[in-house]
Structure prediction request, 575 residues.
Amino acid sequence: MSTLFTRLRRDLVVIAGLGTLAYLILPNIVVTVFSFNNPTGRFNYAWQEFSLDAWKDPCGVADMCGSLSLSLQIAVWATLGATVLGTAIAFALVRYRFRARGAVNSLIFLPMAMPEIVMAASLLALFLNMGIQLGFWTILIAHIMFCLSFVVAAVKARVLSMDPRLEEAARDLYAGPVQTFVRVTLPIAAPGIAAGALLSFALSFDDFIITNFNSGNTVTFPMFVWGSAQRGTPVQINVIGTAMFVIAVLVVLAGMTIGNRRKKAQPK
Amino acid sequence: MTATEAPPRAAAEPPVHKPSVRKRLIPYWLLLPGILWLLVFFVLPMVYQASTSVQTGSLEEGFKVTWHFQTYWDAFTQYYPQFLRSLLYAGTATALCLLLGYPLAYLIAFRAGRWRNLLLILVIAPFFTSFLIRTLAWKTILADGGPVVGVLNKIGFLDVTSWLGMTEGDRVLATPLAVVCGLTYNFLPFMILPLYTSLERIDTRLHEAAGDLYARPFTTFRKVTFPLSMPGVVSGTLLTFIPASGDYVNAELLGSTDTRMIGNVIQSQYLRILDYPTAAALSFILMAIVLVMVTVYIRRAGTEDLV
Prediction:
């Protein structure tokens, strides 16, 4: 009797968990299914009939692929900027004791503890007051700013769990500071840096609120989708959404496989 | 350090390990670019916004700093329903995220076995698909007369939510329920990942130990698992509540004029009405409310090592 209850309770967790997973995945399924739709009106919210048209011509909508490539460019530059700046900060915070360390920690934490709209609005206040033209550069500046904290958090976590004796060993073996850093420190910190970079890319590519405030007339992909929600949503948006999901799953899967293989290759 | 004790110290240490000025400056050089970036594009904007919030004037004549603090009071009294609604929606969404996210995080941490990576990917993957596209998909899912609404209606769910004031009649779209549903959906991964991280760290031998001491599974959960997962619960709820309270996308796409949150007000004040002082005051009030709530919460939850 009691084992029956135990089983039921154990399975309850599984059922509830899978239910949540279904809730998470359901919109992705709808996006995929509706990428094969042939809607009659301007909006792609109701199923009409099966069609491959959108997949044959994903860039058939004016300005959509332009906005997509702009978003990709911004995401690449923002990732580079935030990763370099953030990794340096993370190393300084973990490896060195210096004055104002607490203040720096709080300054890093604050952007994550603030509603995005507050940062978005304050940046707009800055740009308006200084008379700076809104566009590509203001978007990039904003994206690097809010991605920075996430990179610091990811790299910090990794460097904190690093065994300092490995570097000592390298130094004992007469490796110079540069050699130690490049051959020992950096490879160990790499997964943290990669995670921070990946997170930056996703955050920047998908950011809407901060971009909405600071883009002026420049249209990134999320801005394009936002506009289309008012004017009419082309099916091609669903094609892009589906492709992004598939690519993301494949990239993460590949990353995990490489990681697992590495782990097996060098048992700790 | 006085001059008299400096020489013997320097002499005692071998010359190779003498911490040179250059070496002591390394952390500052590492910090400089990033911190400068944050100071110029995060702190300075706040200062500008603070100055904007106490300005008066108009777009045509220009704005001047007049220390007009009245704007704060006016903005708050005019828009307190939107403030309350934002906190209510964000709070409900956070509670739902915890309720929905915990079983999944638990499942991935303890029960998934070789499916663990796949499940994790399925939780993370939405990050890479545009969240606006997915939010628009909810318009299809919750469409009037659609299958989801039909089932909810049939099982009497909508009667309950109507009574609670969350829905109207037999529709879900353009009601508070739709907005809360969208918020819950959008921020769920931010709840699951920290929960998973802290659950995964728990030594499963503790579960066995609790079982050996005749604790029933639920008691084990209540006395062992849940308390040990508190860091995850705290950071998960913060990562959900903070962005949800300032969100305006879900209210705009899935709600109606009756579900406007404070984010919608700030957005339209800044980008459409162009009343910058009021917009700045509103976003400072939102920031203050969130910071106070978060500080109190972190104190009470007692996890200061979180940061």
